[in-house]
Design a protein that fits this description.
- The structure is a homotetramer of 117-residue chains.
- Chain A has helices at residues 13-26, 39-46, 50-62, 80-104, 109-116; strands spanning 35-36, 66-69, 73-76.
- A 3-stranded antiparallel β-sheet of chain A has the order 1-3-2.
- In chain A, helix 1 (13-26) packs across helix 3 (50-62) and helix 2 (39-46) packs across helix 3 (50-62).
- Chain A is mainly alpha-helical.
- The A-B interface holds A 26-27, 84, 87-88, 91-92, 94-96, 98-99, 101-102, 104-105, 107, 112, 115-116 and B 26-27, 84, 87-88, 91-92, 94-96, 98-99, 101-102, 104-105, 107, 112, 115-116.
- Chain A binds a DNA duplex (15 and 15 nucleotides) through residues 12-14, 38-40, 48-52, 54-55, 57, 68-74.
Amino acid sequence: MNINIDYQARIPIYYQIVNKIESFVTKEIMKPGDQIPSIRDLAYTLGINPNTVKKAYDLLEQKGIIISKSTKGTFIANNVERAKKEKIDNLVKDIKNNIEELKNYGLTWKEILEEIK
Amino acid sequence: MNINIDYQARIPIYYQIVNKIESFVTKEIMKPGDQIPSIRDLAYTLGINPNTVKKAYDLLEQKGIIISKSTKGTFIANNVERAKKEKIDNLVKDIKNNIEELKNYGLTWKEILEEIK
Amino acid sequence: MNINIDYQARIPIYYQIVNKIESFVTKEIMKPGDQIPSIRDLAYTLGINPNTVKKAYDLLEQKGIIISKSTKGTFIANNVERAKKEKIDNLVKDIKNNIEELKNYGLTWKEILEEIK
Amino acid sequence: MNINIDYQARIPIYYQIVNKIESFVTKEIMKPGDQIPSIRDLAYTLGINPNTVKKAYDLLEQKGIIISKSTKGTFIANNVERAKKEKIDNLVKDIKNNIEELKNYGLTWKEILEEIK
DNA sequence: GTGGTCTAGACCACG
DNA sequence: GTGGTCTAGACCACG
């Protein structure tokens, strides 16, 4: 698992981990049933505290993206399709919002299309 | 000045104020030379701490969007065009990033266009 | 807020806090908008670590029962009715399960009714 | 012996085994004198560690529900009646507690009866 | 070795 | 003073 942490960013470390693993799953780099690194392993690899990884895993579990099995390890859950759809929907929604904003600035759909192509 | 503060948001209150005033200016709801409310007034209207408004005004002045004239009050500056261009550029850049992401999820340009139209 | 922690119980401390506050809300001892003790205050009162209280508050927020407003404090949310309905539904479901079990042991509905009256 | 292990549950695996075998006995699916699977066999069948099954059998023996005869194997004990009574009493007690809770929420005995019938 | 809980305490931004 | 993040590290049950 190749995760780069940006320690300057306003985004908390635990949240950067959540985003990364989420994208591994939605991009199908990791698939349902796959085991992910143990809390200790990932903490050691990233040079951070196990509690921080735990917090990330907790949030991912709450989102239904991973499942923790005590003493067994942590695994990718089956909700991948839902997670993927959610992610795409959010990206599309963001784009729409931005386009709406641009229109408020007087840009036409044609001009916007020109810019983003 | 109609500003809604979201106290749950991760975005600091002072920054929400900056964003709002910035958009008033870029959308030309407010124009160069217009006077904006005093720190005390706005703080009272929004029911928040004057220090918070002060912090927002400081940042806006530093960005060159407003100018405070000691005993006279605070006014919209002339850099509007630059501010506007910056805002538009950011919106376009965001859209491009999201489109790139969507392509990573296997969507074609045609499909993306279909979604956002 | 009168919360008794049972340190011997298998139920984690943070979860006992969740249950207690949840019941305060569902029993309308606390109402939407009410401020609850700050993390530090409650931790001090209960003689436990602030992180443990934080964990409880996080879970309660995730459940939609409380809302944390940074620098303002923590407040009861508006979902009380839903929370209450959920709690009642769970209690009723538990009872039904137990009755079903008792029938497996050969008890009739009459006998069960006799026992629980 | 049909036992389903829930690896997500907070209830330890060994305890899930205890509960299941206990219910086999109290529901008289298994009767005094019946032989139960060897530790190795059950561990293999469930795909779990023999130590876990051992722990479950130890607890069951301590409770007087099974008896292991060194070279002969493990058998259901005669205390079935006591075990059964205990189980029923617990179920009834749970129901009573839940009913008490429901009354705290303002439901009358009539309403509760309506719900659980 | 694995995840789960908890303590003790630091530091931060915000207001 | 408030909540949010993070470290360091201990201890636990389970397997």
